[in-house]
Amino acid sequence: MRILFVGNSFTARNNLPGLLTALAGARGIDLEHKLIQAGGASLRQHLNAGKALDAIATGGFDVVVLQEQSTLPVKSPARMRESVRDFDAAIKEAGARTALYLTWARRNAPESQQALTSAYAGSAAELGATLVPVGVVWERFLSMHDQPVLHDKDNSHPALAGSYLAACVFLIALLEHDPVGIDVPVKGLDADTAALLRQSAWDICESLATTE
Q1: In Å, how far are 14, 22, 48, 77, 126 from 18, measured between CA atoms?
Q2: 3-state SS class at 98
Q3: According to the model, what pLDDT value does residue 212 have?
Q4: What Å distances lie between residue 12 and 124, 127, 128, 167, CA to CA?
Q5: Mean pLDDT of the chain
Q6: Type and span of the H or E element at 32
Q7: How high is the pLDDT of residue 210?
């Protein structure tokens, strides 16, 4: 499977595509990935730059994962929806499918998760895209666990545990595989913490599926 990730540091930090590739490999999925990112970039900036559209048209990708600038879905959901529509048209024309990486609220503004979730879920429903509900899983996990900390020290970016939880959600929502029991070591995460994150991702995604 070939996946193109388009986003910014929320995707690049801790090498989320690499974490997902390791999980996929443990489930027998040969995953190739490419990342096009710029710090703080919005999807509109990626559209205007042209590099992502070129890669979509010529790269032979199966899936294109879109990650909007972290607060733009709260401040201007209409702008996000417009950018996602433009990307989705190019993605479908290339014979690929669109996935939306629903990100998380900043640690000091948890109330913004609802707006983030609504913006991403609305776009996914409109376009028939796959929703990868990372922010929703973070929100549920944080309501149940004090450790590990998911946010980095800046209260915005993901710590390694946050990126690993995100990768587990991608494995479930995008690749339709269960991360529970995968024992591929992750440098910087102890085995018990990694196991908790894998189990939590599965349990929370299962509960989301039954309540939708």
Answers
A1: 8, 6, 27, 29, 29
A2: strand
A3: 57
A4: 22, 25, 25, 12
A5: 97
A6: strand 32-37
A7: 83
User: 121 near 144, Cβ under 8 Å?
Assistant: no
Span 173-178, average pLDDT = 97
pLDDT single digits (tens) 128-172 = 999 999 999 999 999 999 999 999 999 999 999 999 999 999 999
Place of tokens 């992502």: 52
If you ran DSSP here, which 8-state letter would residue 184 be given?
Answer: -
Joined together, the tokens standing for residue 189 give 């995460």
Give me the torsion for CA of 201, 182, 3, 140, rounded to 10°. 10
Pull the structure tokens for residue 69.
Answer: 């600038």
Q: What's this model's pTM, rounded to 2 decimal places? A: 0.97
- CB contact at 8 A, 62 and 85: no
Q: Is 155 left (phi over 0), alpha (psi -120 to 50) or beta?
A: left
| 168, 204 contact by CB (below 8 A) | no
Give mean pLDDT, residues 180-192.
95
CA gap 98, 108 in Å, rounded: 30
Cβ–Cβ contacts within 10 Å for residue 176, how many? 9
